[in-house]
Amino acid sequence: MKARVVKSTGLWYEVQGESQRLVARLRGKFKLEDKKLTNPIAVGDWVVVEPNQQVEGEWVIIEILDRENYVIRESPRKKGHDHLLACNIDQGMLIATLKRPRTSTGFIDRFLITLESFRIPGVILFNKKDLYNKKDLLKYEELKEIYEQIGYRVELCQFDQEVSPFVLEMLQRKVTLLSGHSGSGKSTMINQLIPDAKQEVGEISDFANKGVHTTTFAELFDINGSSSIIDTPGIKELGLAEISSEELFHYFPEMREFLGLCKFHNCVHVNEPGCAIKDAVGDKISIERYESYLSILMNEDNRR
Q1: On the chain, which terminus has fewer CB atoms closer than 10 Å, C or N?
Q2: Would you list the DSSP string of 214-228?
Q3: Which domains does the chain have, with CATH numbers?
Q4: For residue 259, what is the DSSP state?
């Protein structure tokens, strides 16, 4: 029977069949097929399951169907391995905050890069607008202009009051990956959309100004039968996976138009002469995004 993975606990999976939700485990041999993945299956995957002949009420995943796309990151716990965040999604939605906790532009850019590898559309929602002073609001407007100019949708939100019509419209008829730091407001947003979800909402640590993890496992929530959200545990860091230093700039939309225009074919756009991308900085490429590119390039080189 064909089913979709709607929850992953690491050892067991909840899958949604045609009319019922089932508990299934992965057939052992799959665990060795890709040694560089900490999780061979992720929420959003389509699989084939069959009843376990030895255990009543238990199902076994016997096949993982081809994926349209996936979002992956470097495993924070197992060096040299990657971790699937979600599969078969229509868009990625990042909940960002300018304070309590603060989301850095580097984190935003890393999330967008992971989407760009499959040309998955990205949306950035800046939550907790009630905490923003005049300086914060100016910063938001600056970021909104930068990201909207390169094709991303950006909105200012207050999820503990309502989910705006903009967000509701963006979610319609799509499978959306929801991501962000712990404490950014993902669970609050889901509770507003789906009261029955009853997601636990964590407090912000005054000492570190960071959120406390409340979502333990990735899970898919149905909104209205045609729209759904994949909620993921809060992410502190987002190490890039499957992206080399040489191709990093391909995942900055504003840099792609300069592909092949540099003097040297192996240009990495740092200090090479005749670099078309460096020449465009401050004009078609924002200084902030170029600096983010350099920072990510240096960090990824150091990690390898």
Answers
A1: C
A2: ---S-EEEESSSS-E
A3: 2-64 (2.40.50.140), 75-231 (3.40.50.300), 245-303 (1.10.40.50)
A4: T
Q: What is the number of alpha carbons within 13 Å of residue 142 lying toward its C-beta?
A: 12
DSSP 8-state class, residue 195: G
Q: How many helices (H) and strands (E) does the chain have?
A: 7, 13
Q: How far apart are CA 104 and CA 74, in angstroms?
A: 18
The 10 Å Cβ neighbour count of residue 4 is 19
Sign of CA dihedral 23, 28, 29, 33: positive
| CA–CA distances in Å: residue 236 to residues 17, 88, 104, 110, 111 | 33, 23, 11, 12, 12
User: Is the pLDDT assigned to residue 300 strictly greater than 80?
Assistant: no
Does the bond joining 233 to the residue before it have cis omega, within 30 degrees of 0?
A: no
* 207, 249, 256, 259, 271 from 274: Cα distances, Å: 48, 16, 16, 13, 9
Q: What is the 3-state secondary structure (H, E, C) of 26-69?
A: ECHHHHHCCCCECCCCCCCCEEEEEECCCCCCCEEEEEECCCCC
pLDDT tens figures, 164-221: 999 999 999 999 999 999 899 999 999 999 987 666 555 544 433 444 444 458 999 9
- Given the structure tokens 């076994």, which residue do they identify? 60
